[in-house]
């Protein structure tokens, strides 16, 4: 490499000065010889001695001159080599820095060697300085890149300073290193964000599970402690993998604990409900029961799934189980009451006294475990609910049929009332009700057909008879159909009789000229709607009855046989004040006067 201080060589300067002062030196030498000849004349030196001495002096002068000339030639060659080296160095610097040209380089190469060197020197100095700065930039970028790569790889050893390739220090290469560094910095930022998210998740999970967060997180990597700075946290692949495994393990533990505590909460609530535990005692375990229907993500309260809390709930469940055994009869009868209520709502008759007597005998005999008895009763309740659910659709239609039959009975009573069109209080409300009742009555045949079809399908599917409070429903529907047919025949007979009387009246009027007073029309048979006698809850112990008011129509008992049972007439003006207020207007078409 060319030395940057080759311009300060003192020897080269002296040789050049010698070449410039050679002529002056020769003149001085001749004068000195003439002065010596005078001395030789005085001394009496021979010519031979004088010639010899002059030859020696001449030879010494030539040797000195030759040496000086050789030194000047070498100095010139050295300067030329220095100039050539400077130009090569300049070319190399421009190539390494990626510069094609440089503003400070002189275009012309004329002038002395020293002038040419002096012209190149400033450009070289600036390029050397620029090269040093560029090497430092490369070193910084490569150091940061190696450091981030080491952090990602999880290397704990100290990163050595990178070796900079001085042959390519161009801005393009530097930009490539910067782009690589930016990608690594982005990856580091993303990894750090993931690490912080994992650490935050671990913190939240540990809080919910009642675990020590610092112990858990430092087991993954010591740098994850809160005392370390954010930039000092490990972002290696191993750390991320272990954090993900830790989060997964904590989530599985949270899921298992939540499932356990929900099971305990369900048991607690069941036991409380069985033994009518007061709210004050239940509130002691609100922190357990509050999560009975919560999802895993919804449980965020610190300590909500701690092990000591689960153990506390287990102890309470065990205590209540022991207390339940001492109150077995009370609990069993409570289950039996629930079962009876389900059957009553489904209109299924059971022998309640026999069932309760059997429960008492089983408990008193001690042949069955209390838990087994309650489990059997629970199974009966489940089956009863399934049975009630299978009957629901048919029972809903039975209710509609009953309501329609009641409206039909009311409408017949209303039609027989000769004063129904009088302007009395509530008359317009009855007219409104009559219009709705006629629409509903017209739907009864289709409703009955649908009810019969669904009942038969239900019976074929289950192979048993569908009963309503102990009475076969199909038999009731058949009885209703026969009564409705009898009523239609009676109506037809009355219409024919009415026509006959009108014909007779016209004949008498033409014969005698007098109009007899019209006789009151005999009442027609009506089908009174089947309606249950409400029990304690308005739905238990119902009995369907199909009977006619004061006409001896038939009804059906539990065995499917017909009997005659009178029923009190329904009040056709039974309408609430609220319904009356909701009707602004509404009249029925009045019959034309003959």
From TrEMBL:
It is found in: Cytoplasm, Cytoskeleton; Nucleus. Residues 538-555 have a biased composition (Polar residues). Residues 488-509, 556-565 have a biased composition (Basic and acidic residues). GO terms for molecular function: microtubule binding. InterPro entries: MAP65_Ase1_PRC1. The keyword Iron does not apply. Signal peptide: none annotated. It comes from the Eukaryota. Keywords: Cytoplasm, Cytoskeleton, Microtubule, Nucleus, Phosphoprotein. GO terms for cellular component: cytoplasm; microtubule; nucleus; spindle. Residues 488-594 are annotated as: Disordered. Coiled coil: none annotated. The keyword Phosphoprotein applies. GO terms for biological process: cytokinesis by cell plate formation; microtubule cytoskeleton organization. Belongs to the MAP65/ASE1 family. This is Microtubule-associated protein 1. It comes from Sesamum alatum. The lineage of its organism: Eukaryota, Viridiplantae, Streptophyta, Embryophyta, Tracheophyta.
